[in-house]
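Chapter summary example.
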Amino acid sequence: MRPNPRSKPRASPSVESEAKTVIDPGLRRGLVRIEPAQRGGYKVADRAVAMRCPHCRHENRESARFCGECGASFERAAVCPRCAAKNPVSQRFCDSCGERLATGEGCDLARDPRSYTPGRLVERILATRSALEGERKQVTVLFTDVVDSMLLAERVGAEEWHRVLDRFFQIAAEAIHRFEGTVNQFTGDGVMALFGAPIAHEDHARRACHAALHLVDELRRFTGALRARGLEFSVRMGLNSGEVVVGKIGDDLRMDYTAQGHCVGLAARMQQVAAPGSVYLTEHTARLVEGFFTLHDQGARATKGVSTPVRVFELQGIGPLRARLDASGLRGFSRLVGRGGELAWLDHVLARATESDGQVVGVVGDAGVGKSRLCLEFVSRCRAQGIAVHEAHCPAHGSTVPMLPVRDLLRSYLALGDGDSAEAVRCKVSDQLLGLDPNFREALPLVLDLLGVPDPDTPDTSRASSGERLAAFVRRFVPLRSANEPVVLLIDDAHWIDPASEELVRELAAAVHGTRTLLLANFRPEYRPAWLGGSHYHQLPLSPLGPEATRELLHELLGSDSSVGDLSGRIRERTGGNPFFIEEVVQALAASGSLAGERGAYRLTGPVDTLALPATVQSLLAARIDRLGEQAKHVLQAAAVMGMQFDEPLLEEVGRPGAPDLDTALGRIREAEFIYLVTPYPQPQYAFKHPLTREVAYHSLLGDQRARLHAMVAAALEKLRADRLGQYASLIAHHWEASGMRYEATRWQRRAALQVSNIKVKSRRRVPTP
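The structure predicted for these 770 residues follows.
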């Protein structure tokens, strides 16, 4: 083989061997060329260039086979099944022995993401690809790697090892896609995956942990079969959460992710230090999943490339918490403030329901406004009155799991414990259903099947649709259960409900009419339930807390120390009365050390220059913005550049040429309650409903995108405000400065200063002489 033409003529043998490394073209595209001015003191051969690792962004020499920072392999080769020689992935035959190279699923996994990505995710990814020219995302990165892969490959042979890795990749991809993660790269004998990009998820850390645990379970069966054949196969995994930058997505789903080196590199470090068969995660991820999973603190460890020791945790299993409200309860609920009127209204509706006039209530409000907390307070009062309460929670990652909330609701109805055996569940269900109505014997196999404990002696053999039979069961079951006692049914976070469960809830909403049942559900404004409407349906809109209630909440959280007086006002202005945002900002300040003491008795340890946006709040809002759709999201980002208030003509001027109707995009944004109409005439003017929504939309743009939009806004203002340029000179100067156009900014700043001077001169002239 000829030496690399870019190498020196008299390269050492080691360099010559390194020059023969085969780099996958797709991976080569991810290795960024470093210009001479950017290399600093990094020495390279004549005409050679440094390469930046696509994983951690570390600069490596051109001939590197592995990243010197995170250890990621740069090789991607097709292994010959006969002679084990490595060949370029584009070849169909081995260039050493002529054997036909494998073209099975294992090779396809490395080449075409469509072959391993489920159709539902393909559609969602491609729907956003043109918008993803570059965007900041809060994500959790997962690395998984086979332990001692080279020794195992040498032991079993190339062909058998190819089959083993092929099956491992399939299992890994299925676990990742189950929780809507994205396989970013296959790294030779491992996988890198992202949760939260390109599809944003507010619970990306929990999804990654669920995927890791699911992968551990699936691999346990797989490795058991290999162990029986004498092959000790094990993997280790690492997780870290933080911010990345996602780039373009092509028609073939190939994604060019560039990331903050610290975020991705730290996930790789966790994988490298993890024990075989274990999952390690950083304190950044641990804070996001605390209580939802069982974690074992491994202590602080010195980590290469990180200035301070990193606390490491081992992921061991599922924790006791299920919803975000449960996590707040773990820290201790703050006193419910500003919701007395809503609780009194719910009490009134409950009184009507208990008089055999069943009611349905939908509590609607923005994320974090306190829907779940209000419902929790209400059902606690119901239990105190002796009223039976049955609950079902809809987790975000459960939207793809059919009948999950219905199964939980039925388990609560039938008083089934988590520790009950399958036989105990079958006995309890049979006794209760047949005690209500002997005719339920026909529905018994269906119910047991729904609960996941089918009776092998009496299988469900009916050919009728299970959905129709479940609907018929609900229509009979609900009135019978409420005949002797009033019942309150709570469906929490109904906006995450799966389609099959939603159909059954529609039957449930119709069945409560004329019974002693109150069906209570809470959801976000963008969700439109199929069971809306009817004389027995009521909707309770929940607004942010008013100024007085916000001050009361902040006083309970911060305390009355004189040092937190000004801080309280800043938090109130920044969070806009959203209770969840308020609590998260205070929690972030305490975690960072800016606040000392305990809740209700904090004191400020030093000046707080800026109130950092908590990752939990950023992920929540970013996921909601992503669900708007491409055009509406672009309009919202453009509006965020304009400021807290903006008008429609300015949006039209800045909008993309040939874009769909602006009214449609604005309609979607208003329906999601991100903005509201301030004045309809003479020109429609809008304002962001919450300052943090604008901040997240603005922050998601990359620097060059923001600069381009600022320049477009400045030019549009010059055109649309031509008759009032002096009045808008300061605003135009701000946008030119934010765009990086210093000359234009200086010109308009001078004009704004002259305008102010003229105003002062005129005002002095109006002062009468004594």
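To summarize the output: The first strand starts at residue 32 and ends at 34.
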